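Researcher: Quick one. two chains, 416 residues in total.
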Amino acid sequence: MKLIIAIFLGVLGIYCAVGVLFGFYFIFFGAEKIDPFMKETKKGVRLLLFPGIVATWPFLIKNVVNPKTK
Amino acid sequence: MGLNYQFVLWNKHKKMYDKIIVLSMLLYLILFAVVTLVFNSETSIETLILRAFGSLAIVLLHIILVIGPLSRLNTNFLPILYNRRHLGVSMFITALIHGGFALIQFHALGNTNVFYSLFTSNLDYNSFTNFPFQVLGFFALLILFAMASTSHDFFLKNLSPTVWKRLHMLVYLAYALIIGHVFLGAFQQETSPFTIGFLSVGFIVVGSLHLISSFREAKIDKSIIDKDAQGWLKVCTIDEIDDDRAKIFTVQNERIAVFKYDGKLSAVHNVCKHQGGPLGEGKIIDGCITCPWHGYQYLPHNGQSPPPFTEKVATYELKLLENIIYINPKAFEEGTEVEPTQIQKT
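Model:
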């Protein structure tokens, strides 16, 4: 059981670490590629979005890699 | 609605609701502390903080869960629904204080990683009654974090409404985990009947309201509508719809809102493009259909959000014969202009 717990927490840690790295790139560069509203969005608001980007980065990363015209 | 994202889309009413939320939360915490210290003066400050914030989070979660069905059963509750997002974030912060404090108090004082300690301090995972209840609270908090951190229109747009909605429907899983967390915690650590009693009543109320509103909606969906010779469906008389309001009908498994405004009638698909809110439960404000959930607007004659916004809903054709409204069940493309049906003055 302890091994399963260690693996789970390791995976969770990696997920969060990747999310944090992606989040910094995304709020200042990547988000503008997929959402024109972000161009005029202030830094404080971008930081507000940061935790959500860390939580949902797998969904957002595919949009950055393959941006749609909106 | 704007051309960039704002920190919070506050208006006069939302500011008032937020003040009420904050003051009510503070009042609860003070009352909880006073009552606890009066009836159990030996309670430590750590335990008091844990229980005060934990119980407040549960109370808020119950309020959040009943707002939806209550506003479907009675439109007087709609103003509370508009502010549910802020209530949800407040609930998460409260739960985070409870969870963070529990982690510090019970798991941060040793040499082991706090999260590893949380999962391994009780390894009785095969037991029902002695199951490590704190783990359930941890998973509930993870869900609440994902929900609170994505409670912004940016995520609704960029995760897609479907993904966003599915993510936020996890609140029911979080609720189940929290019930398990509290029941097991109460069972293992205290014997107060109040906690279990409150949670049981809360569960019955939440479940009952959801069932009642579901039955009512199912009744609307199953209502039989007569057809005329051309296949138009007879829905209601003019008098059954209030001015600047709508009535919702289910036609070929789609919900349609028929609005009456300025001596005219128009029909649009009932589902708002923003978060799937019921447009037919909203009203006409400034000439626009206004979604009751977050105020997204559509022009009734073409189902389009006023420029520069781009949301569109499907429109439907209506006709009026002797005060009876008929609807053509064939939907037009989203955003198609349909001449409103004029109401003859008698």
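The first strand of chain B starts at residue 226 and ends at 227.
Researcher: Thanks, that's what I needed.
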